[in-house]
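Duplicate of #3305? Posting structure anyway:
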């Protein structure tokens, strides 16, 4: 079955090469599709059928037809109607995979230099492990994989370091489709620690993990903004997600309180307002997508 147009709304069969049928999932949020590095790469491969693309739109407004015109034919665009959260976007994409898809790669809209990485995955032919991870860097800092020590997540200092109990971020993660028979993304979360939750759940379910230390992706995770309202909304998401992630137990609550207090204090100093500290003490959760 060949790929259908982005407007068909029907499942697209991923192309096969050396045993791998690869689908790439990208979540859009308030960014022009034509300006997304990963989509620019996909458009350059329009005549190449090795990869199919699923663009899940979590933006408040649907992308215009003109903006979508740059998508390659072997892609599908889905607008969720609002910002439903990252786990729901990922899980929505998974429902539109067909039976021939063997592996799914997750990329952020701002991920750079994906071509070499995806080509290496295809050329390898057999991923070997249930989950394959690249090294994700921001400048000189290794963001992923990272070391998990109890409730604490710490970066590794050099490539090839044995992380022990490990976690990672989702950008660049390639997952065997069979993993999703027992593990999905936790929709109780909205944005933060979604990747850590998936890493915990997948490893507890027995998924094997391979880090490709020889392959790197560049990512920018800056949260800096001069807009106090935007920063406040972002803080509410962080607060709610950490409370959910660490759970209702005493130790989990204390850990979440410490991490969210630290960020509230930094924001209080930067924006010169007590809104963040007031939110830290509040038990009220973010009510709806409009606040996010």
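Output from current build:
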């Amino acid at each position: 079955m060949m790929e259908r147009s982005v407007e068909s709304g029907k499942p697209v069969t991923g192309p096969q090469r050396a045993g791998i049928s690869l689908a790439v999932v990208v979540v859009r949020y308030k960014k022009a599709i034509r300006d997304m590095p990963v989509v620019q790469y996909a458009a350059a491969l329009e005549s190449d059928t090795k990869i199919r693309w699923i663009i899940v739109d979590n933006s408040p407004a649907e992308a215009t037809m003109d903006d979508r015109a740059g998508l390659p034919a072997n892609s599908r665009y889905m607008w969720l109607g609002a910002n439903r959260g990252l786990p729901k976007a990922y899980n929505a994409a998974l429902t539109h995979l067909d039976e021939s898809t063997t592996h799914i790669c997750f990329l952020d809209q701002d991920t750079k230099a994906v071509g070499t990485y995806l080509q290496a995955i295809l050329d390898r032919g057999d991923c070997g492990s249930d989950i394959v991870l690249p090294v994700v860097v921001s400048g000189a800092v290794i963001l992923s994989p990272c070391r998990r020590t109890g409730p604490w997540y710490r970066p590794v200092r050099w490539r090839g370091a044995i992380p022990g109990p490990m976690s990672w971020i989702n950008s660049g993660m390639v997952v065997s489709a069979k993993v999703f028979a027992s593990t999905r993304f936790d929709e109780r979360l909205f944005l933060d620690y979604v990747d850590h939750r998936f890493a915990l759940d997948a490893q507890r379910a027995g998924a094997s993990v391979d880090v490709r230390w020889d392959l790197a992706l560049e990512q920018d995770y800056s949260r800096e903004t001069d807009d106090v309202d935007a920063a406040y909304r972002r803080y509410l998401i962080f607060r709610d997600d950490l409370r959910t992630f660490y759970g209702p137990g005493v130790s989990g609550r204390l850990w979440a309180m410490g991490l969210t207090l630290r960020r509230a204090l930094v924001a209080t100093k930067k924006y010169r307002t007590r809104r963040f500290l007031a939110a830290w003490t509040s038990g009220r959760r973010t009510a709806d997508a409009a606040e996010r």
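Confirmed duplicate; merging threads. The radius of gyration is 19 Å. Residues 1-18 have pLDDT under 50 and may be disordered.
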